[in-house]
Amino acid sequence: MTISRIDWVKLISEESRVSPILKLEDFVNRLGVSEVRVRRALLRLAHRGLVESFGKKIFLNLLVRDFSGRELVNVLRPQSYISLETALRDSGVISQTPLSLICVTTGAPASFRSKISSIVFRHIAPHLYWGFQSRRTQYGAYNLAEPEKALLDWIYLQRKRGNAIVTDEFNFRKLNSDKLLSYADKYPKPVRYQLLEILLRADLAIHRSSSPGQKETSDAKRPLIP
After folding, report:
1. What is the 8-class DSSP label of residue 93?
2. Taking the chain, what is the end-to-end CA distance rounded to the nearest angstrom?
3. Taking the model in full, what pTM does it have?
4. Does a structural domain hold residue 43?
């Protein structure tokens, strides 16, 4: 089969029912044409606004309207999961939505950006690759950190990057304190000490904000540090 006989618009229209991700190697194997010829064809479609280049060998099918971007995470980095600010936002620990999907990976750190999607990967040590669950979308699957793991990843990487640990707007009531402290045992001591300091400050702030004489709920009475 030659590339001149392929109706590429029809092909990506059919693909849009299955996946928003167009891989060069998949077309090479299925159509029996060279990678160079496939890339040229997809670049022509990109000029027409039908697909968009995303990384070296991946294009996004713009005919897919409900693409979340999360389907790309484990395609770009198989050993990875969504964590940090994105996972904390998903669980309600923070209220601000990050501009990119923030992930961690045991592979190389990287950033991938396009007009419709932005994904950032930060590196973690292999022994910290745990504490996540698989999630599915209409078009694929991705891994998402538990909120307790996302917070610990965040503290760990903030410290490594020399960034300030600012948690004034974090809602720690969305976290399981027992699980959080148990997970912290698997991190370096400075991370554990930092977590205890954060939880102590959060407890003090919660008690100070309680009005004198106001009846507290059972949840408000539960300390963050058991």
Report:
1. S
2. 67
3. 0.85
4. yes
